[in-house]
Design a protein that fits this description.
- This protein is α/β, with parallel strands linked by helices and about 725 residues long.
- The protein has 5 domains: about 190 residues, Rossmann fold, CATH 3.40.50; about 70 residues, Arc Repressor Mutant, subunit A, CATH 1.10.10.160; about 190 residues, P-loop containing nucleotide triphosphate hydrolases (Rossmann fold); about 160 residues, PCRA, domain 4 (Orthogonal Bundle), CATH 1.10.486.10; about 55 residues, Thrombin, subunit H (Beta Barrel).
- It contains 29 helices and 25 strands.
- The strands form 6 sheets. Strands 11, 12, 13, 14, 15, 16, 17 and 18 form an 8-stranded mixed β-sheet that branches.
- α17 runs antiparallel to α25.
- The structure holds adenosine-5'-triphosphate and magnesium ion.
- The site of adenosine-5'-triphosphate (ATP) has 19 residues, from α3.
């Protein structure tokens, strides 16, 4: 016992051993909030105050939940596997799976990720002949999700004008469609679960009595509905310990409300001796310079509850800053540094590359791949969002639930089976009329289209029979082969990578651990398929490097919340990218949220921090000229070491305090060409070389082709003629 409490400071000790009462821990990054939360669970269990069964712990990402479970297992000798530790979505999913009937869902209900949801909304608009310019699908998704996150169903939604009235009607149509197909979107997981508990008294009482202690990490990022869900579960006398940092609230766009913290303090934490709020002020994670940079940045925000963070770890190294010519140059710099770090003995899993936007990962991934460094991408839905993966999953989903129209439409004509858009429209109309799924309505189609769809249905039935008793990975492999997907990509020009991804899906199935703890899923059980598909929608592509393999960690700043690494690279620090232009256009509030995001990014680093930006970047297929992020200016000069190796005297951006970094000097000739030289290209016409790098087969130049834009070209292939 004393072991458990040995490594805690006074405030942490107080928080861990709090008598059974509600409490709020309000503290900055790296001050041990998560450690306190985990240790408290261990302490409650080992002092016999609660059984593992009676604990509910919520955190924000799957990775964080895994880490919490692992830490707990190391602290107390209990079986943590069955414990209710997870994300809001994961826990709600678990509850709905256990009570699907009461929740009005089919046993095999599938989860729509945001891309599926968008597809569904588009389809709906088309079926109902609604102008999608007037009612943009994306906006409608947002409208629906925002309502759900407030706990508001279409039937209760208010509309003060005709336009909103129409959107509410579409929301209702969308609800019907989801119910008919037996699918739920992310927001629905929560709302459905909340309503189930609210409506069903025996069930509610059961869980209220079961959970005696509810612990919530990253409380600052809960939205209204999540907070209401917690309150409902705590209604039977459970004690809530909420842990959070207002400076790390980064999900405002998804309806998170920092106000929940104030409300919780007011409604739950008042005692006769004053509010039961504990503050932790010592940072145990980062060296002094890193912490100083974080503090310097966040103090520019106005909307804060206010906290002080200090460390006794010493200043440590300066923050390394690098300005690259291009995004590719930035990636090379980062990966070269990482190679050196690894050579010097740094463990790859202790190195994280962070970016503001998921699209940035591709260039970095490519560079890592080329240099043969194993890496893992977290967050987003990268791997499972790839086209070929979604196709394969759609076949699997249809096997589990033929009424899944989204899955049906995705693959009914993929690979092509001569089923035209017209036939599908007829089919959809027929399904709409008889209020049945597309699968069931298929018989109503006549003629050639009827035959083609009929053949598809038979294919699905055959696949179902053939895979009935196969273990999960073999099932996946079988489907990929027999559906025609593999053959399709074999003949496609750029199909190789897609085939590799499909192989990776089989790997994912093979390493997948189902609820029973069986790797590869329990053979002959539909249950393994369902949980695998759930895993595919809830989790992201975490399989680039094999499980357990040492790999460099790539993730968006959002996904890095709560985590820590010895070495952190924050890339793409450019105006418009980080801070993101969408947020900036929202004005002060948007910028403050971006700044909190920057604070989160910096405070992930323990010992070494790199910040980098590029002068040009390919975004959405176009080269953009970039200006370094204003956040770089908010880091005091004295904390920085500028690393531009080829730096020379021409300041790059005089607007930024005398220039951050510097432009490269005139490059020596590459393949007989040099910067400043005019060249001609067969397709892009005349241009001027503006940058060059690499040698021999690796030589590349960046050319400004005027109207045709800026391009990086590999000299070996580009065939440039000097003019
Ligand atoms: P974040 O706000 O980023 O989520 P946090 O407040 O949850 O951070 P933790 O992740 O719990 O912080 O702790 C940060 C690091 O400091 C961890 O490595 C943790 O083990 C360590 N740490 C926390 N408290 C102590 C302590 N009293 N002594 C030594 N190390 C500590
Ligand atoms: Mg934490």
């Amino acid at each position: 016992m004393s072991d458990l409490l040995a490594n805690l400071n006074t405030q942490q000790h107080q928080a861990v051993t709090l008598p059974p009462m509600h409490g709020l821990i309000l503290a900055g990054a790296g001050s041990g909030k998560t450690r306190v939360l985990t240790t408290r669970i261990a302490w409650l269990i080992s002092t016999g105050q609660v059984r593992p069964h009676g604990v509910l712990a919520v955190t924000f990402t799957n990775k964080a939940a895994k880490e919490m479970t692992a830490r707990l297992a190391a602290l107390v000798p209990i079986n943590v596997r069955g414990m209710w530790i997870g994300t809001f979505h994961g826990l709600c999913n678990r509850l709905l799976r256990a009570h699907y009937r009461e929740a009005g869902l089919p046993q095999t209900f599938q989860i729509l990720d945001s891309a599926d949801q968008l597809a569904m909304v588009k389809r709906l608009l088309k079926n109902l002949n609604v102008d999608d310019e007037k009612y943009p699908p994306r906006e409608l998704c947002h409208f629906i999700n925002a309502h759900k996150e407030q706990g508001v169903r279409a039937a209760q939604a208010e509309a003060y004008d005709n336009y909103t009235q129409k959107r509410v009607e579409l929301y209702a149509e969308y609800e019907n469609q989801c119910n008919r197909e037996g699918v739920v979107d992310f927001a629905e997981l929560l709302l459905r679960c909340y309503e189930l508990l609210q409506r069903n008294e025996p069930l509610r009482t059961h869980y209220q009595q079961r959970f005696r202690h509810i612990l919530v990490d990253e409380f600052q990022d809960t939205n209204r509905l999540q907070y209401a869900w917690l309150q409902l579960l705590a209604g039977g006398g459970a004690k809530i310990l909420a842990v959070g940092d207002d400076d790390q609230s980064i999900y405002r766009f998804r309806g998170a409300e920092v106000g929940n913290m104030r409300e919780f303090e007011r409604d739950y934490c008042q005692t006769s001796a004053g509010p039961n709020v504990i503050r932790l002020e010592q940072n145990y994670r980062s060296h002094g310079n890193i912490l100083a940079a974080a503090n310097a940045i966040i103090k520019n925000n106005r909307e804060r509850l206010g906290k002080n963070l200090w460390t006794d770890a010493g200043d440590g190294e300066p923050i390394r800053a690098f300005e690259a010519y291009s995004d590719i140059d930035e990636a090379r710099f980062v990966i070269d540094e990482i190679r050196e770090l690894i050579r010097d003995g740094v463990v790859p899993t202790q190195v994280a590359i962070l970016y503001r936007s998921n699209a940035q990962s591709r260039v970095l991934e490519h560079e890592l791949f080329t240099k043969g460094i194993p890496y893992k991408v977290y967050g987003g839905l990268r791997f499972f969002e790839r086209q070929e993966i979604k196709h394969a999953l759609a076949y699997l989903r249809l096997l589990g639930n033929p009424d899944d129209d989204t899955a049906f439409l995705r693959v009914v004509n993929f690979p092509t089976r001569g089923i035209g858009a017209r036939s599908l429209e007829n089919l959809q109309a027929a399904a709409h009329q008889t209020n049945s799924s597309l699968y069931n309505a298929a018989a109503s189609l006549s003629g050639k289209a009827g035959q083609a769809v009929g053949a598809f249905i038979r294919l699905v039935e055959t696949l179902r029979q053939e895979t009935q008793n196969l273990p999960l990975p073999e099932m996946v492999e079988h489907i990929i082969e027999k559906s025609g997907l593999a053959q399709h990509y074999r003949t496609e020009k750029e199909g190789q990578e897609r085939l590799e991804n499909l192989d990776e899906l089989i790997n994912a199935a093979a390493t997948f651990v189902d609820d029973e703890g069986v790797i590869g899923g329990t053979a002959g059980e539909g249950g393994a398929l369902v949980s695998f598909l759930t895993h595919a929608s809830l989790e992201s592509g975490e399989h680039q490097a094999g499980e357990g393999q040492e790999a460099v960690q790539l993730m968006s700043v959002h996904a890095a919340k709560g985590l820590e690494f010895d070495v952190v690279f924050i890339t793409g620090l450019e105006q418009g990218l980080f801070p993101h232009e969408n947020a900036v256009s929202e004005g002060k509030e948007g910028l403050e949220e971006e700044r909190r995001l920057m604070y989160v990014a910096i405070t992930r680093a323990r010992r070494r921090l790199y910040v980098s930006c590029a002068q040009t970047r390919m975004l959405h297929g176009q080269t953009r000229y970039c200006v370094p992020s204003g956040f770089l200016d908010e880091i005091p000069e004295g904390l920085l070491r500028k690393l531009n190796k080829k730096a020379e005297s021409v300041p790059a951006y005089t607007a930024y305090g005398g220039g951050y970094g510097a432009r490269p000097a005139a490059e020596p000739a590459v393949g007989g060409l040099r910067v400043g030289q005019s060249v001609e290209h067969a397709k892009f016409g005349l241009g001027v070389i503006v940058a060059s790098e690499g040698r021999g087969a690796d030589a590349r130049v960046q050319v400004n082709f005027g109207g045709a834009g800026m391009k990086w070209l590999a000299l070996e292939y580009a065939k440039l003629t000097p003019v």
